[in-house]
Amino acid sequence: MESNVVECGEGPVDKPKVVLGVSGGIAAYKACELLRRLTESGHDVRVVPTASALHFVGAATWSALSGHPVSTEVWDDVHEVPHVRIGQHANLVVVAPATADMLAKAAHGLADDLLTNTLLTARCPVVFAPAMHTEMWEHPATQENVATLRRRGAVVIEPAVGRLTGVDTGKGRLPDPAEIFEVCRRVLARGVTEPDLAGRHVVVSAGGTREPLDPVRFLGNRSSGKQGYALARTAAARGARVTLIAANAALPDPAGVDVVPVGTAVQLREAVLKAAADADAVVMAAAVADFRPATYAAGKIKKKDGQDPDPITLVRNPDILAEISADRARPGQVIVGFAAETDNVLANGRTKLERKGCDLLVVNEVGERKTFGAEENEAVVLGADGTETPVPHGPKEALAETVWDLVAQRLR
Q1: pLDDT tens, position by position, 45-76
Q2: Beta-carbon count within 10 A of 79 CB
Q3: How many other CB atoms are there within 10 angstroms of residue 389's CB atom?
Q4: Model pTM greater than 0.85?
Q5: What is the 3-class SS of the chain, one letter each residue?
């Protein structure tokens, strides 16, 4: 593959080289959006479709969008040895959509076209974004092929749940191209070929619980869920199987993540206990209400002229973090908590870490204009072993990477 260079103030800089493999599924048209995001963000993208993929999107489209010629055959431009060179020169290979047939070929090392040859010669990170009917995804053969690829270090993101072809609905839908792009961006940023969370199941809670007062009102908090979603996306890019328990978060589902929506603290507890049963790590990033109303009004609470409102009696919600820390579902399970403090941040954090019994506690200062709803975060990660890891102000994904670095160390 030829080198593509851009000029900057300090001289020419090589663009990261990405191979976008497209296999023959109806979701192939969505790969055009992924290609656009990759090229517009400064990546040099070579599209390598299968012959079947060209039945859905033609070679002229891929060539025009990528700026590179498109071929499916190893016999084209033989003097350039494309079946070897394309994979050797890539910084990332992503296959989207990856059909059941493509996953099977990749798992068994078959090489009957340019894309499968490229997969065998690539020495860079490889990401598969599967898309197929639910029955095909759930078939033992497909699941075994996925397990094989993950065991070898490939990132195989979980398909989304939703409308498939025809009237069918279920798991097997290609994740949103914007979310696949986020996985690719994170994999490229790490630059490692062996995802350190491959084969691990992690659970992340996100958002803020809401405790209903009546059919139209609730007690809540300012949490947007952005930090928890960053944790989920980052874990998926590092090869983990991710369960995201989302409390009232109005955010798009991250690619490759199983999302479980909940509303209240009690619902969140039930979902966490269920998901944690086989999890290697649980990260409690959600802002969970400490209290809930003792009674729920079946009808809207009315304002009475000349009368003060009746007082609201609160009762304690379950302490989910302390519960799962004290009674771990499996040996070696790593538990991470979050502490949002408004004053005496580190002192309160250390006290909370000891009281909760978790392995790591992410402590940050919050307020009306701090952390909640923002794109950035700043924190100190306290360890039960006495360690302190400061994370300077920056994108929430940077804090997420630090958390997973610390979790991966403890899992090893």
Answers
A1: 999 999 999 999 999 999 999 999 887 665 55
A2: 5
A3: 15
A4: no
A5: CCCCEEEECCEEEECCEEEEEECCCHHHHHHHHHHHHHHHCCCEEEEEECCCHHHCCCHHHHHHHHCCCCCCCCCCCHHHCHHHHHHHHCCEEEEEEECHHHHHHHHHCCCCCHHHHHHHHCCCCEEEEECCCHHHHHCHHHHHHHHHHHHCCCEECECEEEECCCCCEEEEECCCHHHHHHHHHHHHHHCCCCCCCCCCEEEEEEEECCEECCCCCEECCCCCCHHHHHHHHHHHHCCCEEEEEEECCCCCCCCEEEEEEECCHHHHHHHHHHHHHHCCEEEECCECCCEEECCCCCCCCCCCCCCCCCCCCEEECCCHHHHHHHCCCCCCCEEEEEEEECCCHHHHHHHHHHHHCCCEEEEEECECCECCCCCEEEEEEEECCCCEEEEEEEEHHHHHHHHHHHHHHHHC
Using the structure block, give the residue that is written with the tokens 């969505």.
Answer: 30
Please report, as a single letter, which amino acid is at residue 194: E
The catalytic site residues sit at: 221
Q: What is the per-residue pLDDT across 257-308, written as a single tens digit (0 to 9) for each?
A: 999 999 999 999 999 999 999 999 999 999 999 999 999 999 998 888 888 8
How many other C-beta atoms lie within 10 A of the C-beta of residue 301?
A: 14
